[in-house]
Records
---
Amino acid sequence: MSAQEIRNYTLNFGPQHPAAHGVLRLILEMDGEVVQRADPHIGLLHRGTEKLAESKPFNQSIGYMDRLDYVSMMCNEHAYVRAIEQLLGVEAPIRAQYIRTMFDEITRILNHLMWIGSNGLDLGAMAVFLYAFREREELMDCYEAVSGARMHATYYRPGGVYRDLPDTMPKYRESPWRKGDALKRSNAWREGSMLDFLQAFTDDFPSKIDEYETLLTDNRIWKQRTVGIGVVPPEKALAWGMTGPMLRGSGVAWDLRKKQPYAAYAHVDFDIPVGVTGDCYDRYLVRVEEMRQSNRIIQQCISWLRANPGPVMVSNFKVAPPSRTEMKEDMEALIHHFKLFTEGYSVPAGEVYSAVEAPKGEFGVYLVSDGANKPFRLKARAPGFAHLSSMDAIVRGHMLADVVAMIGTYDIVFGEVDR
């Protein structure tokens, strides 16, 4: 019998695979079930966001930011809006800073709920997805209440936020599925203002996180799929430019909210969770604890916002639109409004890098202005892009099923990777 040559074979993982999170195409070189090499192919969701921003006035590109990492919308807006504010030399009112802080944390919870649900689904834990989306719906209603849109809010504006928090929350209507006592229960939190709703939500949310932990933290199948998988040593994490839970999961306590505080983070109290071994399980624990800390921050913001009413936008009409009543009475206000939404405003020449601690890591916007009313150059620093570059080195020697666990633990969204 002649000796038969055994060769590695290549396997296309994605882009249509449900665990490829959108449009990742991984070309895997396999030796049996073991990965020898992983080559990520990206660019299948490239929409030219950075180039498009160069052809529009500054204030018309805020909506593009929502569509980068489309699971943590307002955090992307925050980085872009802060970059414009730094170039203009404008500072948002303190109430707007607290509202931004609160919505950044609501966004972090939204992101981590999406992550825990989809990552659980990828690794075979089906129920968590349904649990996580139950709470996600409640917070999506907060987005809708302030901006009118469930996802792409365009709520943050240079100089503050679009409007103050609403006094009412949308209520469920009677339907064949929700009526009588069930309807009353569903609307119980929604009788007061948005802050009342968030107060009720944050009081209840820790018990819901306990439910997710009951399903996963000590689940032996979950631990078999995540413990010791995708270990990232701290020095490697820094070398690859990792940020957020990927870096903190490896034991490095780096968080821009503490190291370079922005908005109202210097005035709120919270802890930074860090991992020990840097595997998928540690990163899971870090994200779960981050949800608890975000909950704490939201509660502190609610208390402050209740006690301190005030403006949420600068009163500079070159940057912020006048109110509708002023427009109807004052010719100059009408002209300001027209100029602001057609021509925009010219930003002084200069360059700035503005970064925020987005749920996935450091999301930064590098903005160059040549003194015109639109950016000369815009570059978005997406955390997922840096994380994905480490895929080949981390996955080598793991089994094919562990590749799915690794893609999940990166928490990548291709809107921001491909831009």
---
Amino acid sequence: MADMRLAEERMASSDKDVAEKAVRRWTALDEDFHREGGYSAESEAGSIALSLGLAAKVLDQPLETLSGGQRRRVELARILFQGSSTLLLDEPTNHLDADSIAWLKEFLAAYKGGLIVISHDAALLNKCANKIFYLDANRSTVDIYNLGWSAYLQQREIDERRRKREQASAEKQAGALKAQADRMRYKATKARAAQSMDKRAARILDSIVEGGGREKVARIRFPDPVKCGKTPLMAHGLSKSYGSSEIFTDVDLAIDRGSRVVILGLNGAGKTTLLRLLSGIEPGDTGEVELGHGARLGYYAQEHETLDVTRTVLENMQSASPDLAESQVRSLLGSFLFIGDDVFKPAGVLSGGEKTRLALACLVVSGANVLLLDEPTNNLDPASRAEILEALSRYEGAVVLVTHDDGAVEALNPERVLLLPDGVEDLWRPDYLDLIALA
């Protein structure tokens, strides 16, 4: 485009030769641009954005005014639009509604380039994957399966059963050798043979490839809430705008002790923004947030901005729990799978799933009686997700939840729903569950 603009400028030259040369140059560039799809690029980009749930008006807004979910969609749209020979996608369905997920699956299934995808969305993998790299943490190895997702699951189960049989057989053989060695070692004429048998048994045991076993899972629980008054959190007349973009106006909310509330709204309706206002991280344009007697808030941010990325895992936890001894903090971190030197990693180098576990660990020691949870199941493997849903169902304090995960809502068993951007409050009804995936 820059070359075409330069040619256009030279076409206006008073020098006839320069102008004619510029015309020929512009014509050649225009043909190349047209052949490469340049004139349809804006339309194609708009179509991808719309399919990912980004309305046309959103595309004209500065990025800093968009919600976390909208920014993720913009980034995904940018990557898909580039049409690279290989796409590297890390949890691409996070923050997408049901329609956008369905579109993305079809788009990736038809994509002519290569895909390298990390995802906990089994339906996406079943649709798009034809080769699986399984990182086995128990065996510290990578298994490669030239299979689709469903066939891979079946073959992996067969392989794990085979490894367990081989392990049992090897252990039995090594045990027999050691028993024979024990019977022989006290006879002077057979001591050397016994030693040889011991070595053979040790080599057999060393060669054993451990069976699949049970994968490590974070033991997630929410804190026992400290005592508080009848209504620990209230908001009156909250409004928020970013520039000329009005997010919501005049929102009232009262969170009673032990109540369970879901915030619903389309992407960009201000769900995350409202939690930030309630937590005190960000001020509203109007209105006020009032804490009741004994209120203690625990805020889980989907972008993990409550973590200090310059500090280590251990230092983040110590800041959240200054009254605990280091041994207690490290023990708690161990239950969230931060073991050994893992606790000395800077939070900034952690994966999305690790940051999720660290942020949840910080909540555990908070003693909060009101939890403000923004997409708490994002980036979690299925086993860890099940743990957090169980913890959510057992928690006795109040919860204000923002999520695209209908399983999280079912675990919460909410009493009320707040609909944004209008700020309308209603008693929870089962038909609201149908809106969760669309939110």
---
Amino acid sequence: MNAQKSLSSISANRDLWIAQYLRKRSVGKLSFLFLFLVLLWMSGGQLLVAAGKKPPRAVYERLYEVRVTKVVDGDTVDVEFLGETPPECDKACQRIRLIGVDTPEYYKKVRQPYADEAKEYTGLCLGTNMLLKLDRDTSYKDRYGRLLAYLYAEDGRMLNCELVRNGYGRYYGKFKFNKQNMASFSQAEDYARERRLGLWGLEDTGQ
């Protein structure tokens, strides 16, 4: 009889210990989840970017006011953010790679044909305030750490598409982005090609 009571007591204590253990683990998981959500909110999505994931949708839905501080070549510039800054970006100097356009490479010693003209065209934006928009349908940054984005002038024209439309660059659709913009860029290239604008006219001169 005493042995049976002892076994019953051991079994009850074991069940109580298991219940307490599971309850502690459950509370611990909830606490960890709550802490993670708080840190995510405080970081503005930077934790996700650092983990290789895309920022929250709100990051892509807003427009960011920037000033162009340097023109690297036709499709690459440096900007300063004048207000809110996207996650994992340098507020004072962030390099931007324009989405959907590929202009001739501008090297110090060797430059591809029409590279000077493309850089000069983008250089018209130097020192001006523009609006920057991100695209959720493509990568956040490229392998060089450049933020992939669209730049809009005050009159609403998109620099990316204007470069293609005026023949300063080619439509670059190797990496998918917003379908509507892809269609617009493709049409812009057709427009420039048919009229032999910019680099498309080089074929006539044998360059």
---
Amino acid sequence: MTKQRKVPFFFQTAASREAAASAGAADVDEASDDDAAGEPLALNLTNHFLIAMPSMLDPIFGGSVVYLCEHNKNGALGVVINKPTDMTMDVLLDRVSLKLEIVADSAEFRPGSITRPVMFGGPVQIERGFVLHSASEKNFTSTINVTSDIGLTTSKDVLEAVAHGDGPMQMLVSLGCSGWGAGQLEDEIGRNGWLTVAADPAIIFDLPYEERFVAALKLLGIDPIMLTAESGRA
């Protein structure tokens, strides 16, 4: 579950981001060629939630909800959305040497977004930042467009935009991500490790993190007390 992926470090300098972006473009072209030669996935879970079943005894993923940003024949990439770290956004901005330039009484100032906790996105590349965010008029250096409404950005310029007051309206910042190799996620689902359901952006961006697990289950019409370790996949 912890297969390493090439994802740009979001505390990079502009020059190193440019180099990473060029390398990333080559990787994308190569991956596209591979995908064109292969069969499409029987079950594409991009833009879905993975909800840990009681049988998921892993100390990292037990009780977690993962938002899947990418799922193809080479594997899957997502971020845990309901496990906070002890760091808040204002502390993170300070650690990456960004000064909040929005005054408290300005229209752009959203105090909740600055004091909310940074999430633990998963055990892969825990020194890197991953920002899930709503659609933005700004173009960032390294963004995966998961849907027309949600992007995943790994470059520092998204935080620079937040500090300047013109960042995405909604976002979830995490350290680390969750990754699966080819067939690995499908195997875990087949062994009743995860429930799957189409994602609702409101759960990611609008609800407190402690309510996201139950809210994701409710998308399936499931009460948490109904879950048992032997339950099948919905």
